[in-house]
Write a structure and sequence with these properties.
Helices cover 20% and strands 37% of the residues. It is of the alpha+beta class. A four-stranded antiparallel beta sheet has the order 11-12-7-13, with helices on one face. A three-stranded antiparallel beta sheet has the order 1-6-5, covered by helices on one side. The protein has a three-stranded antiparallel beta sheet with strand order 2-3-4, with helices on one face. A hairpin with a 2-residue loop joins strand 3 and strand 4. The radius of gyration is 21 Å and the shape is elongated.
Length: 178
């Protein structure tokens, strides 16, 4: 039995979960998220808890059991508290500025880079080198942060670029003189 999949998920107050066949809708104070569960997995709401079960011990059923439970749990956390991901801009002359809902990066290119937030994502700037990506969908927040980091990844010699908050960049020695 899946160690994660067999655990019931407690439903916090203010959150409603509706199960319609394979569709699970989670509604909370921050918004609403929907999830379509893969076919062999069953989801039931019992006594203030969500229970995820699988019909057999086939390999595909076992792999989807814990995944489904985690996705539903992530949706519940998203509609109650939300998710945030921090980014840091490191480098001489590298900075970021808020322009309405979008943000503008100066990352050593010949032009400024304007980033529009995807639907459901909020971008906020703290100071001139910190960006916070926030939203209710964990996957969308992580993808938006990864796309921003992809504009200028941290390079290994000086560590310049856009990195996740707390990310440790492995540094190389560079050229050695005679």
């Amino acid at each position: 039995m899946s160690r994660i999949g067999r655990l019931p998920i407690d439903i916090p107050s203010g959150v409603t979960i509706s199960v319609d066949g394979q569709d699970v809708a989670v509604k909370g104070p921050k918004g609403e998220l929907a999830l379509t569960v893969a076919s062999p997995i069953e989801v039931k709401v019992e006594e203030g808890q969500v229970v995820v079960t699988r019909p057999d011990d086939e390999r595909s059923s076992r792999s989807l059991h814990g995944l489904t439970r985690t996705l539903i749990s992530n949706n519940i956390v998203g509609v109650t508290t939300g998710y945030t991901k921090g980014l840091e801009v490191v480098g001489t002359g590298y900075r970021v500025v808020q322009k309405g809902s979008s943000i503008e990066f100066a990352l050593g290119f010949s032009h400024p880079v304007l980033v529009e937030p995807p639907a459901g994502i909020t971008l906020t700037v703290e100071g001139n080198n910190k960006v916070t990506v926030s939203g209710i969908d964990k996957q969308a927040v992580g993808e938006a942060a990864a796309n921003i980091r992809k504009i200028r990844k941290p390079e290994p010699y000086k560590g310049k670029g856009v990195r996740y908050a707390g990310e440790v960049v492995r540094r190389k020695a560079g050229k050695s003189g005679k």
